[in-house]
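Customer ticket, subject: "Can you confirm the structure for 2TM domain-containing protein?"

Message body: Hello, I'm evaluating your service for our small team and ran a test protein. I'd like someone to confirm that this is what the system normally returns, since I don't have a reference to compare against.
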Amino acid sequence: MKRKNFITLAWVSLGTSMFFFFVFTDEKNIENFLYTIIISFMYSFVLGGGNGLINDFLNKKFPWSEATTKRGIISIVVILIANIIMVYFCNYMNFVVFQKGATTAEYFKGKYNFINWFTINIALLISAFLHAKGFMDELKKTSRKEVVEQKLIAKSANAQFESLKNQLDPHFLFNSLNVLSSLIDENPVQAQKFTASMSKIYRYVLEQKDKELVTVEDEIEFAKIYCDLLKTRFEDSVNFQFDVDKENLRKFVVPLSLQLLLENCIKHNLATSSKPLSIRIFTEGDVLCIENNLQIREQIKESAGIGLANIVQRYSLLTDRNVYIEKSEDYFKVKLPILIDKPNVISVNSDDEDKAYLRARKRVKEMKGFYGNLASYCIIIPFLIFINLYTQNKYHWFWWPLLGWGIGVASHAFQVFGIGESWQEKKIQEIMNKQKNRHHGKI
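Agent reply: Thanks for trying us out. I re-ran your input and got the following:
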């Protein structure tokens, strides 16, 4: 426990002793005053301090945020056992040692059973308050931590995504200038046409490079223009074939992905009139494929692998679906996932924070309801027992509300700590996640 908690207990003990001394003590002298202070401090520090230390120990060993269900069950068992022991100890010291109102045998035979039972309920009320306060403090701290972590993840993902997109502009320009440089010597007229086509293509690059996704239709149209540009240089050495289903045209892919893959085809394969390079762009279900026949060219300098790596990384930031690569002795194929909706996974907006806040608020409300129920039980049941025993000793009707309400409190505890509807929701979510992962595995 912290120092301020001990100071609080000292002030509570002093206030309680003053109240009992002036209200219930007949002989008001220094001896009785000191005796009242000692008794008050004993109860306050044993019950209040003991429950505080138990709560601190459980917070370290079983934090609410990491093991809510386990912590709830352990807390109920531990506080019941610990408070019974502490109450019996305090009452023994008070009635047997200090007041000498009974012998040890008389005490444990049941002379003070009612007082012990009443004090145990008061102790449980104190413990319930401390555990409720500890849970809400932990929940607030965890909620703030999660929001901060999500913001950091979002900023990191945004920075990484912007870095990847910024690779496209210089990468495309570098490759295009290399092509243009070759054409100037080989065919100046074609070089002029190439320059005009390159300006149109570069305009598209500038328009699309800042977008997360573009429609398949836009990307295919751009790829056709880019293929015409490559035809200008390679003529009959390269053949292109497009076979894309119309139903996929309004769906989405990563921008400039086809341009980067077409560059890879040209860069890594030989293309001559006698052995033309055939490139096919087509769809297979919800996948866009780029396939070429293998005519690997020998390269003096190892490739940096910017194009394909860029596409893979950008997809990983936008979806959990993977980019697949197939390679055999005859062909090389890349499969790009076609996305139905534009995902929003790299930004954490106010809606996400509002949902997290509402979930946390609902959880706090559930916990407050349970501890309010427990506190009411600990206060009202001892009062009913007192009324029953004071008015009618033969028929003990207090057992009915004690057991009935007690079962209700236990059921409430199981529901709040994960055995009721919250457990069902967790199980449903777990099954849905498994089915989702199995579905993506097949894709």
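A couple of notes from the result: The longest strand covers residues 277-284. The chain has a mean pLDDT of 75. Feel free to reply with more questions.
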